[in-house]
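**User:** My hope is that you can spare some time for a protein that puzzles me. As I understand it, each token names a local backbone shape. I would be glad if you read both lines and explained how they fit together. The protein I mean follows directly.
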Amino acid sequence: MPPQLVLASNNRGKLAELQAMLAPLGVRLVCQAELGIGEAEEPHRTFVENALAKARHAARESGLPALADDAGLCVDAFGGLPGVDTAFYATQFGLPKGDDHNVQALLEQMRGVGNRRAALVSTLVAMRSPEDPEPLIAVGRAVGEITREPMGEHGFGFDPVMFIPAFGKTFAQLPPEVKNAHSHRGQAARQMVQLMKERWGAA
């Protein structure tokens, strides 16, 4: 098992979450930015294709095994959108890129929409090298409903408006360890830990 994995992201919240979730493997995640690696192109329309592109780019540029996460919000009433465009959602409506603006734009677009069902989806891809013919792929989904206003102080992204019926709270209202255990990224990370143990011989 490699002692280091390069994370094909510069999102500090994502790095902290994934580092905690991969703790059982004893690996250290290194942000690609720390290695001077720029962000990959993400031209695809599916999470898995973009995650593959990001992992391949990070592995090629770093010479290390790479882990990439492509995640987003899929809103039923919008036919699964914003999907792969989640990070840039606000920019479609003339707002700057950023979590708070994304939440603002989503709530404005959903004003008057009755069907508020949505899923946060995380697709994790790990590659030993850019030519790895057998990338590890894990997918997690957290299904809930979009609230009418933000609630809670924890997390990032759409956590303040993602209401999880099983808890009666948004992800942002849950303690981080509870959120991580049940989130889309938490589900995908647990699958990835098992895949790495099985396929890469991790301890």
Q: What stands out?
A: The first strand starts at residue 4 and ends at 7.
